[in-house]
Amino acid sequence: MNPEPDIHPPSPIAADGIVIRAARPSDYEGIAALGSLPRLRWGTLRLPYQSPEATKKWLESQTPNNLSLVVEKDGVIIGSGGFERYQGRRNHVASLGMGLHDDYHGRGIGARLLREILDTADNWFNLRRMELTVYVDNAPAIALYKRHGFAIEGTHRDFAFRDGSFVDAHTMARLKP
Q1: How distant, in Å, are the alpha carbons of 33, 109, 112, 126 from that of 106?
Q2: Averaged confidence pLDDT in the chain
Q3: Where does the N-acetyltransferase domain lie (predicted)?
Q4: Using CA atoms, how far apart are residues 68 and 86, in angstroms rounded to an integer?
Q5: What is the spatial distance between Cα 44 and Cα 20, in angstroms, rounded to a whole number?
Q6: Which of 58, 65, 92, 167 has its CA 20 to 30 A from that of 83?
Q7: Per-residue pLDDT averaged across 164-168, rounded?
Q8: 31: helix, strand or coil
Q9: Among residues 46, 20, 21, which one has the least CA distance to residue 33?
Q10: Per residue in 105-138, pLDDT tens?
Q11: What element of type H or E holds 173?
Q12: C-alpha closest to that of 121 among 92, 97, 153
């Protein structure tokens, strides 16, 4: 008799110690700490001082229509990302979000995470359209998204309040190739 298969097989570890895997409710403290970093928070809609308990509740509320991934380096969460699929007549569309630890920008890790998200969206969820918003002053993120097939479709003026002032954001989208 064969033993039961592992529900969560280990993710392959790259030579640099990076692992991209499904987020688990037990990751809540690492994800909450990640979201409190100044550079990561600057590029997102996250508010300061989000409690680990709020992050845990969010992780526990994920549905099979959503994808939540984390990036680990040597067992420490250094990134997260995923998408939330829309319902009804927009069932072919999802909204993307991702962030990376302040100390790991410019190393290609965000690109690896984005490729995993898009591969899953294209080849497992059969999503036709991926959407996101990005602040207009986040040039590295905009360049990353453009390299992966996203195009700017418009600009939301005074989209969010960040660090004492309003900031505009581009809406970007990618159609499945």
Answers
A1: 20, 8, 12, 30
A2: 88
A3: 18-173
A4: 15
A5: 21
A6: 167
A7: 96
A8: helix
A9: 46
A10: 889 999 999 999 999 999 999 999 999 999 999 9
A11: strand 165-175
A12: 92
Determine contact, residues 141/152, Cβ cutoff 8 Å.
no
Q: Which domains does the chain have, with CATH numbers?
A: 18-130 (3.40.630.30)
pLDDT band of residue 12 (cuts 50, 70, 90) is low
**pLDDT over 90 percentage in the chain:** 62
Structural tokens at position 103:
């100390």
- Helix H or strand E encompassing 152: strand 151-162
| Residue 76 to residues 21, 28, 41, 71, 151, Cα–Cα distance (Å) | 12, 12, 18, 8, 33
The residue-averaged pLDDT of 41-63 equals 80
Predicted confidence at residue 38, as pLDDT, reads 72
What confidence tier does 54 reach under pLDDT thresholds 50, 70, 90?
A: confident
Helix axes 52-60, 28-35, angle to 10 degrees: 120
Strands (E), 105-150: 129-135
